[in-house]
Design goal:
single chain, about 350 residues, mainly alpha, 2 domains, 15 helices
Length: about 350
């Protein structure tokens, strides 16, 4: 919301721009310092200087793709990519999928279901795009809807085969979601939590399971599951969103439904992890108190809390050297976020 700026079309273009920025943030793995800068600056676009060249390119390309869909919207000067010097300027897959919704087979979803279907289609094509030549990507970007399928003729046979397979996978996911959405019991909040925060997912994504971490880990898992179940019920997550999560599509679900994936890290944002490092535990307490800052964007708070929850899990079980280095880092972060909160007229005791 902070980086989004003013958008004329608040109903369609605004949330799509937020989603474009969220995709760039997630795919570029923006640091907690970058998120804190955006959340606490009166000129948040100046924080973009903290991005690496690759992260900045992803950000610009994501906004360019959004602007292709909403050409009547203005893009801030700092968000405009530099003019291309020649025809060899690389085109990334985020940009190349701008017109993906028009590929055959046609998407059947319309109305309120359409934006999510388009997000799934674009993700599917992105996965197929990695080995495409720059010329092929340029074709997909420039093609008008009736002619976009002609660009497929420029693909190598194995690339064309992979594209067909990914499109089929995307359509199968949409069909599975539609089926689950029609069976509320198959995708209720309890099922959502059971799938998203399953033991297998914790093993793959959470902190390592060792005798030293066992107690901390059990609490993180229980608290994360409780937090998601409460949010799912209290915020009335739609049947389509719940079905999407149960169907196994993680990032796409939250991005398409204007939710923050950072909120549901391993552990979830807001889950208190005691590290035994005074500065880090103090920083964790500060982030908990941010929830009272009504003027600070909720997504920024969730992103900060989610990042710290993961870091804290590492601090709690780190080596002596890692724990010693964590203290000063947490103190600096704590001071920075307190200053950021003040800019939103929020004083943290």
């Amino acid at each position: 919301m902070i980086l989004r700026g003013n958008v004329d079309d608040e109903k369609l273009a605004a949330p799509e721009k937020e989603a474009a920025i969220a995709r760039a943030c997630l795919r570029g793995k923006w640091t907690s310092a970058m998120l804190a800068c955006v959340g606490g600056s009166n000129a948040p676009r100046s924080c973009l200087d903290q991005l690496t060249a690759a992260q900045h390119t992803t950000y610009l390309k994501s906004l360019t793709a959004w602007n292709e869909i909403f050409p009547d919207e203005e893009v801030a000067e700092l968000d405009k990519p530099e003019p291309l010097d020649d025809d060899d300027e690389p085109i990334d897959c985020i940009t190349a999928t701008t017109t993906a919704e028009h590929l055959a087979p046609a998407l059947a979803q319309q109305g309120a279901d359409r934006p999510f279907a388009v997000a799934v289609r674009r993700d599917a094509v992105e996965l197929a795009c990695e080995d495409w030549s720059n010329a092929v990507r340029a074709c997909f970007v420039a093609a008008t809807p009736p002619k976009i399928d002609a660009c497929r003729g420029q693909l190598e046979p194995d690339q064309a085969k992979l594209l067909v397979a990914k499109l089929a996978e995307g359509d199968a996911l949409l069909a599975k979601i539609a089926t689950l959405a029609g069976k509320p019991a198959a995708s209720d909040c309890a099922k959502v939590v059971a799938v998203f925060y399953s033991d297998a997912e914790w093993k793959a994504r959470g902190p390592a399971a060792t005798p030293k971490t066992a107690k901390i880990r059990r609490k993180m898992i229980a608290d994360s599951r409780t937090a998601m179940k409460k949010a799912c019920a209290g915020e009335k997550w739609t049947g389509q969103m719940r079905a999407c999560i149960v169907a196994g599509s993680r990032e796409t679900c939250f991005t398409a439904f204007r939710q923050s994936i950072a909120r549901w890290s391993f552990p979830a944002a807001g889950v208190i992890v005691k590290t035994g490092i005074s500065e880090c535990d103090a920083y964790g307490a500060t982030l908990q108190k941010l929830a009272t800052c009504s003027g600070m964007p909720k997504r920024s708070i969730e992103a900060l809390q989610g990042t710290f929850a993961q870091e804290a899990a590492g601090y709690a079980t780190g080596t002596a050297a890692e724990r010693a280095a964590a203290g000063p880092h947490c103190k600096t972060a704590d001071e920075a976020i307190r200053r950021a909160a003040q800019s939103f007229n929020c004083t943290i005791p």
